[in-house]
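Reviewers asked in the last cycle whether our approach scales beyond single polypeptides. To address this, we selected a multi-component target totalling 649 residues and predicted its structure end to end. The input consisted of the following lines:
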Amino acid sequence: MDTSVDQVQRVRFWSTDPRVRGIVDNVADAVIAIDIHGNIEMFNPVAERLFGYPSEEVMGRNIKLLAGPDYSRHHDEYLARYLETKEPHIIGIGREVEGRRKDGTVFPIYLSVGEIEVAEFHGFIGIIHDLTAQKEVEKALLSARAHLQDIIDSMPSILVGVDEKGIITHWNRSAAAERGMDIGEGIGQPLVKLFPFLERQLGDISGAIRERHPVRKERLPLQSGSGNRFIDLVVYPLSSADALGGVVRIDDVTERVRIEEMMVQTEKMMSVGGLAAGMAHEINNPLGIIAQSCQNLVRRLSDEIPKNREVADNVGLDLEAMRRYMTERGLFQFIAGMQEATERAGRIVTEMLAYSRRSTSSFVPTSLPELVETVLHLASHDYDVKKNYDFRRITIERDYDVGSDLIFCEAMAIEQVLLNLLKNAAQAMAGNPLQTSPTITLRLREEEQWLRLEVIDNGPGISAEVRHRLFEPFFTTKPVGMGTGLGLAVAYFIVTEQHHGRLEVDSIPGKGSKFTLRLPRHEEH
Amino acid sequence: MASVLIVDDEELISSNLAAYLEDEGLEVDVANSAEEALRKVEAGLRVQVCIMDMRLPGMNGDQACQALHRQDPGIRFLLHTGSPNYVISPELGAIGITPDHLYRKPVTDMTKLAATVRALCAGR
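The resulting structure, written as structure tokens, was:
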């Protein structure tokens, strides 16, 4: 090209001044000079290495040759616009663009451009810094950051990073999900705005960050729409950062707290057992006195005992009149009431003792279908006028689908549990006059490591509040004197503690209830 | 006349048992402790059946039965206890006491207890 010969022949100040030449040739970045049309007039050794062209090959050619496709397309316009308006977009500023090597590969560069009018030269000097290594580091950093985010996202805990002012700097997916927000939305917001329940903990949180000392608070109760919740809160101050900050970890421990409460309950039941053995003696004596006094009272009003007649005669009493008086004034009923109450108290003591006697229990291989039959036989004789139910009115449906394997259990105890479930079902259905065909379904199944027995009735069902307290000791829905409130508590204890099984209840009020008993199939005790 | 000795530190228990058994036509004596029972037998009280509470101040029911048996091997025993976990000791088993002779408090109906006392009196 003519122009190139023309350009090359021009003598520029950087060629005449060896000091300038020395600088240009020895700086660590590429230095390229172009005239106002964009034609290359200088191309230093670093530029040669970077773009892969020897300098004589690019001299006089347009700079577009070295630019990435996007930049290359518009370079003429940029240049023309600048020369016309003198409004700098890149001149004197510099920015990240893409360069193109001789082999066609495109790579990231930082380009700073200055306009020069020195001596007879008017054009631009570009200093080009290769960003390839830096970009790779950036990419690695980004992927490390994504990986870290992945890690904190996979934590089930709510994790929120905050600065010393309590502004959210990071948070994980669980945290965003708790707020129903997108993961990008929370950053920059105050912690208490998104987690108002932390308002009262704010002092502790900022204290932990300031003092650089972790703070842990357990089982904080929260009021929320869906009933009471409990959280564990831990604030870890950031230890390495120059600026103050911390990570707030929140775990929903509602389920754990519930299980712990249940364990406390079980323990309470156990101690009831321990207490019972000692107390029983003290209670049984006065109970005996009351019951026997009642029996003697009635008997000493009878004609049949000669001594009664003799003493009555001596004091001038008509025994017959006395008895009539007592009947009419309900005195015999009072006495019967005392006897009944004594028996009831005695039953409570006996049931409480069920615990302490359990320790000497013996586990034997048992066929559950046979055990169920035994209990059904027992139950069928359990007609209770007072409790107003008749087991014979109830249809029993058997739905057994199990092998002939025996399970290790304490047969008597499991019988007690099952009898209790059946009686409860029968009593519940008797209390539901709308149910014209009361039915109890007994379903036996194998389920993984369990043998599952379901006792399903079509009675009135159990409300949610009652269901939650069903296995509590001394909780009863039956009229005073009908239940001790220990039946299901003992059943629960027998199944879960003694047999390492499970006892659960499901119910749809109005439709019926289902008690599910699971016993381990392969456990020996 | 058949004679029964009731040993119990609860006076109301002994008096109720005594009343019932007297109404049954039995002759009944009462002691508030094992020591008192031994003194009475020592002093010549003739006892066919002894109803013994097991938890007593001083000498306990178990020792008392053995001591009374040594004094008079003809005495038959009926154990009456408020301890739900009570088991008849081998020593008492050896002098012929069986679970049929064990009554746990509260005995709300004394009919059966009285029948057992009668049977023991009759030497059955």
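Helices of chain B lie at 11-23, 34-42, 61-71, 90-94, 111-121. We regard this as preliminary and will revisit it once experimental data from Aim 1 are available.
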